[in-house]
Amino acid sequence: MKKLLLLFIAVLCAIDFYSQNTYKFYLDLNKISNDLIKITLETPTITQNKIIYNMPKIVPGTYQVYDFGQYVMDFEAFDSNGVSISVNRLDHNRWEISNATKLHQITYWVEDTWDADVDELVFEPGGTNIEQFENVVLNNHGFFGYFDGMKTIPYELNITRPEYFYGSTGLTTVSTTENTDKFTIDNYMDLVDSPIMYCKPDTTTFEVGGVKILVSVYSKNKMTTSAFLAKDIEGILKAQQAYLGGKLPIDKYAFIIYLYTGQSGSGGSGALEHSYSSFYYLPAIEPSRLSGFLVDIAAHEFFHIVTPLNIHSEEIGNFDYINPKMSKHLWLYEGVTEYFANHVQVYQKMISTENYLEVIIDKMQGARGFLDELPFTELSLGALDEYKDQYSNVYQKGALIGLCLDILIREQSNGKNGLKDLMKTLSNEYGKNVSFKDDELFDKIASLTSLSIRTFFTNYVEGNKSLPFEAIFNKVGISFKANAIVSEFGFGNISLGFNEETNRLFVMDISNMNDYGKKLGFKINDELTAINGQLLTPKNFEEIINNYKKNTQYGDKITITVDRLSNGKKTAKTLKAKASKSEKLVPFFIEINPLATPEQVSLRKAWLGE
């Protein structure tokens, strides 16, 4: 009886301890005023006389200082009797509270970031949106903060919503009473890692490899639906499941998609990854074009379940939201992730080898716009400041670093293992809750592979040498040339663009048009509607143009139908000429080497999954 009594007392104490050592936030989505939401916090127990409440200066995955505290106003603190406690705002993101041992409640109002009056808008996937009775995007770092030294205690969010709203999220710890959702989260890092979008629900769910997948879409103009987009998302996820060995390291994942009309406030569109979800801010364009665009982005964001979720340095694992320390391994977090997002599509037969080689060339051309001589580790460490303008190279050269490593690792194992196998080994060793030391990763990878891989890192990631493409591609029987002259069946060296309003290709520039283009008779702003009788649509124009370039023969009669604006009216015109190749200088040329050795062919097949 005594033991039972002691156990009962212990349980009561544990419940009381939890209630006193939990952040309890309350907000009501029905009570929005001029795009502002009031936040109320029942504070955890504070044991020191002064305490600082923080809103993040920066959050993981953004690599940009945004000062989320600048969107907070009317910050007040109270004791249990409702008496005001002195607060001193230290800067954009920090409030110092006196007599903190008496602190019981904090209130403040938050403005959304998407349309705020600031010098530089937050990139929307990492920002917040408040549209009363229409849509509320809770990227939680924009609404909720933490006290110094108290990031690791639990959080409770109590969100009252319109009855027709649904909160889409990757969180699983949610209970609902009438129109109030209560989320419980283990710590601040997990809270920031878990966006929620409230709106009238348009959701589709399915399972891949035992993982519950949620696709949630908000589209004001109803351009497309979650069911439509979910089909292609499911396809790429099944490919990724097979690519990663059949098992995924998560139980639930949410694709949260906001489709905007008009112009993006920040000037960009894209997505931000999280451990169990990703948030997308994309234009509401024709569904088939949007779906193809989304698949590439979704593949990248979903692969973040490998890194940094399960492979990350101490700088990521214990992120400092006020004074962030950057890791030197953006080649891993973003570069390898981008490489996998492209490579999975050829490895799992979603695209052809030829198409994949074009993707590689696109990455090389993209990397030309950045400083090749800048060591990638230095770029990573300076991504917030000194090398901010070089950050986007992580998706170009970073992916190419991944490609080189994959081939080198394949070569050493006679094709049996590749970069994805190395990542699996590292995931098993570290996982979500264990971080590696930033300065030790290269040596760790070398211990799992070879000293030659360590030399690669020394020369091409820590060093300033250009990636050795010719030698790397030669290993897999592929010829590579820089600054090569090629001849192809094209359109006379005109420049084509895409008209978002008409969903058509159009002639953007004819300043370099050659004799073949002149014979066809292209004019500026001609809109291409058909090639050799095949109607061009946003869904098929890439395939039709590629077939035209690949299958055309000298002397073939070519007809191209265009819509031409004349006297304020569009008129259909048919342009005709006999096919002729044009020579041009290209910065990079890649093709399968027909004279490759059996060993080279074998390694190429292992690399590309042939």
How is this structure best summarized?
With 610 residues, the protein is of the alpha+beta class.
Assigned CATH class of the largest domain: Mainly Alpha
The major beta sheet can be summarized as:
9 strands, mixed
- Tally the beta strands: 30
User: Which topology of the largest domain does CATH recognise?
Assistant: Neutral Protease, domain 2
> Given the helix and strand composition, which structural class is it?
alpha+beta
For this entry, what is the oligomeric state of its chains?
A: single chain
> What's the mean pLDDT score?
92
Provide the number of structural domains: 4
CATH architecture of the largest domain: Orthogonal Bundle
Low-confidence stretches: 1-19
CATH superfamily of the largest domain: Neutral Protease Domain 2
Helix content: 25-40%
Distance between the termini: 70 Å
Rg calculated over all Cα atoms = 28 Å
